[in-house]
Fold FAD/NAD(P)-binding domain-protein.
Amino acid sequence: MKHVGRQHVESIAVIGAGSAGIAATKYLAAEPIFRRITVFEQRDTTGGMWNYTLDNSKARFPTPVYDELESNIPKELMAFSDLQFPQESQLFATHETVLEYLRQYSKEVTPLIQFNTQVLEVAPVGASQWMVTTEQSGHEKVTESVFDAVVVANGHFETPLIPDLNGQTTWKRLYPDSILHSLAFKNAANFEHKKVIVVGPGASGTEIASQLESVVQHPLIISKRSHTQDSTSPPGRLTLPAIAELIPSSRSVRFVNGHLEHNIDHIILCTGYRCDYPFLRPFPTFYDGFCTRNLYRNIFYIPRPTLAFIAMPLKSVPFPLSESQAAVVARVWANRLALPSQFAMSQWDDAFRLQYGGRKVSPLEAAHFNISLMEGLYDWAVQATRQTSLINDGQGKLPARWTERDIWLRERLGPMKAAFTAHGSDRHRIRTPEELGFDFEQWKRDTGLCEPSRVL
């Protein structure tokens, strides 16, 4: 049985200065054993996907931020442990508020960031080190640097996941601007009086549909793969199942139930993104649906655990999850926390893929997965060997642990966001969950329960 043994890590490369990369850097910097921490960021600023790009067709690094984008997570759950969102900001923060928040959060580690620097390749060197090849924008200067460990924190909102629709190639040739991914959507202005199909029931599909319904030709058509014949649509919308084929000759779309819609002007694909690590091409795919591959606890690359991934699981609350994962990574590489043998890590990976691989999960199951994941990471982090030079009585920098109220709110994210959106322009005045009727203390009194469910 091969044991992982002690980690010999003094120098670390962090790829990405978005929320995950900054969180990782803060926890690594809190461990005095690390001699060199370098963050590589391809943009000229921090914030990652929360940076707004005016025209994604011309942007070198486009982001999924559209004009009226708001967080899907209430600010008190979304926040990092050591910085709260402004009290006066709305409950589900605007993208401008989130970007400014991240810039405030990153200030203390900004000197460690190399901006305008794109990572071209990460390759193993010798038994345990990594060669990181980078290029500085505008200088065409390629640099190779050796590190003992690498944190991958480049996010997963850059490479659109485009479904292969029957007839799509001909349709796009005849009507090149009529099919777009949500990555290219900025506002509803260009869709006035148009006949539009929105594909996908997720967060972006729901929000974009809400923006479109007041300007498009009615009904706004929503295509959901999970749609059933008994489903009903609100006024102004028509909900249909998955698209079976596109018929370019008549700009018609046939759905899998046989329903046919003619004269379609636009199809907006709110179909999500593909986890993409172009600098890791020699490695196997790390992500498949809801499931990771060959990563212990969704973090450590099992064959070489000096490669770690932060904020990879989807349907999570990414900021606090990044903290919980970063706390573990920093402790493992500082030799204050041990990894199990490669055999044991592979057993964990096999069990995880058996449970989650190749399928989608319900919102409630995703919530319970998220809660269990974060609690497990916190419990693991506090097992680390203490050092008198570290804060928190020798434990070092620790993420916050969710309260019973936090867990209760996490289980209700979908209904809470729907209630928030239903207030229209008045939603900007809403500051707390209680204003929407999501009152944890009242729920406890009404149900007679002491705490929300802790499943898994």
